[in-house]
Amino acid sequence: RLYALCSATTFVFLSTGPTVSGSLVKGKVGQNITVPCFYTVRRTQDITSMCWGRDSCPVSKCYRTIIWTDGWKVTEQYNSRYMLKGNLPMGDVSLTIVNAEEGDSGIYCCRVEISGWFNDQTSNHKVVIEKARISTASPHIYTSEQTS
C-alpha cells in the first residue's frame, strides 16, 4: 500500500512539473514593473480564468490573491497598484506593478486555470525592488582610468 501511495504522488508531481516555470524581475523603487505571464490562445474556447497571488503557487487558486480575471476582463482587484495591461483574450496576463515599493519584493504566482485535473499552468516569479542608488563616481573618473 505504501508503494502505491508513493508512486501516485510521484505521478502527480511529474504531471504538474512541466507546466511550472518562472522568471526573475528586477526594478527600482518608483518604477512600473511588469512581471511576464502568457498562455496560448488559439481559439475562443481557450480563453480562461486566471489569478495572480503573492508567494509560490499552491495546489489550486492563488494564495494572498492580487487579481482575478475571467479571461476577458479583470473581475477582482485587491490593490489599484496591481493591474493587467496586456491583451487578456490573447493570453497576455502579465502583471504590472505601478510605482513599485520595496515591499513589493517577493515571489508572485501566476495561475492560468485550464480544465482537467492538474492541467493549470502555473509559474512563480521572483520580484526584487531596490532603492534607486545615487552613484558617487562620475563617468570621467572611469574614462581617465581606462585610458591612462
UniProtKB/TrEMBL annotation:
Into which family does the record put it? Belongs to the immunoglobulin superfamily. TIM family.
Which segments constitute the Ig-like domain?
18-130
According to its UniProt entry, this protein's organism is: Spheniscus mendiculus
Q: What is its main location?
A: membrane
* GO cellular component terms, A-Z: membrane
Q: Where is the signal peptide?
A: 1-22
Q: State the protein's name.
A: Ig-like domain-containing protein
Q: Does the keyword Glycoprotein apply?
A: yes
Protein localization: Membrane
Transmembrane in keyword set: yes
Identify one Pfam family in the record.
V-set
Q: Which InterPro entries match?
A: Ig-like_dom (IPR007110), Ig-like_dom_sf (IPR036179), Ig-like_fold (IPR013783), Ig_sub (IPR003599), Ig_V-set (IPR013106)
- List this protein's GO terms for biological process: apoptotic cell clearance; cytoskeletal rearrangement involved in phagocytosis, engulfment
Q: Which UniProt keywords apply?
A: Disulfide bond, Glycoprotein, Immunoglobulin domain, Membrane, Signal, Transmembrane, Transmembrane helix
Q: How does it sit in the bilayer?
A: Single-pass type I membrane protein
Q: Which GO terms describe its molecular function?
A: phosphatidylserine binding
Which residues are in coiled coils?
Answer: none
